[in-house]
Design brief:
By secondary structure, the protein is mainly α. The protein has one domain. The protein has 11 helices and 2 strands, in the order H-H-H-H-E-H-H-H-H-E-H-H-H. The chain has helices spanning 36-46, 48-66, 73-93, 105-129, 142-176, 178-192, 201-222, 225-242, 263-266, 276-295, 302-310; strands at 133-137, 255-259. The chain is globular and about 65 Å long. It starts with 35 loop residues before the first helix and ends with a helix. The relative contact order is 0.16.
Length: 311
């Protein structure tokens, strides 16, 4: 998660100090104009309806070109994606980017990683205790498997969090408030996973709740891309190394898993995310993190969102 080196901005509040949306300002030397067509165009581009699509296209293009590349290519793609995100936010949206600040990035990534590891670890232990999973050593090369998993999952975690939490959630909460933004981005996160192997309506709903909503609440709590990317990375990497399908994708891991019993318990071909127990645990975590976000003043109501956008 050392992609912070691409974001040469260290000013502004840390990830624990709440949303930065109240500090939106005009980009220096960027889009200008106070009146007429040029002024209206500049305001549109700097609005969420302008910078969100620009960022989605830029980060999405980088991800598409690098996500399945060999060796460290996915990590280099993540670095490039952070750079694209920074440019869009600073030069198009005209706002600072404390959510990708270098300061405290390692701490946030480790905290998120611990929660992601705990989430998958507890879910897997419970399913195994109920007879749903049994594991055996796969016999693949340890270093090669771990290296491949880490490279791929860093790229996936960083780029997806920039898209869904950094761009989509922050844009939508300026339009409609934080609560609506979590719901909408969570639903889109679930729909995006409908195209994966073994997916169905239930797996999409499960992903929307336990991943989309939980990661949204996690971002509101910490206001740090590194926190949610760390959580996302540890979640996916732990599953892959255990041999459990990650959202329907089965990759080479350190173990192989034998699945027994109902798909309600095990998640079936889609993997752990479609099992009932992780959904329940994810909902509990999401509620707790949302409460912490609200206590910290990081939840933006719709009225404030309109005021911020108008300002």
């Amino acid at each position: 998660m050392q992609t912070t080196s691409t974001a040469p901005h260290t000013e502004g509040p840390g990830p624990d100090t709440g949303p930065d949306i109240h500090h939106a300002r005009g980009a220096r030397g960027g889009l200008g104009g106070r009146g007429g067509l040029g002024g209206r165009l500049a305001r549109l581009v700097r609005s969420p309806l302008g910078w969100m699509p620009a960022g989605l296209v830029g980060v999405g293009l980088v991800s598409g070109l690098t996500a399945t590349g060999p060796g460290p290519v996915p990590v280099l793609g993540a670095v490039a994606a952070v750079g694209v995100y920074w440019l869009v936010m600073r030069r198009v949206a005209g706002r600072s980017t404390p959510e990708i600040a270098r300061r405290g990035a390692g701490r946030e990534a480790l905290l998120g990683g611990a929660i992601g590891l705990g989430f998958v670890g507890v879910s897997t232990l419970l399913i195994t205790a109920f007879g749903g999973y049994s594991f055996s050593w796969a016999g693949h090369g340890f270093v090669a498997v771990v290296w491949s998993a880490v490279m791929v999952q860093i790229g996936t975690a960083v780029t997806e969090e920039l898209v869904f939490r950094g761009l989509a959630l922050q844009a939508l909460e300026q339009l409609w408030g934080s609560r609506a933004a979590i719901v909408v981005t969570g639903l889109f996160f679930g729909l995006a996973h409908l195209v994966t192997p073994g997916a169905n309506a239930w797996s999409a709903l499960a992903i929307a709740v336990e991943a989309g909503v939980m990661l949204g609440a996690a971002f509101l709590w910490r206001r740090s891309i590194w926190f949610v990317a760390g959580l996302h990375f540890a979640w996916n990497t732990t599953e892959q190394l255990l041999g459990i399908p990650v959202s329907g994708h089965t990759s080479e891991g350190l173990f192989t898993v034998d699945v027994h019993g109902s798909a309600v318990l095990t998640g079936g071909d889609f993997g752990l995310e479609a099992a009932l127990l992780p959904v329940v645990i994810g909902m509990l975590l999401a509620v707790r993190m949302f409460v912490l976000a609200r206590r910290g003043g990081n939840v933006l109501p719709r009225r404030s969102a309109r005021h911020t956008q108008a300002g």
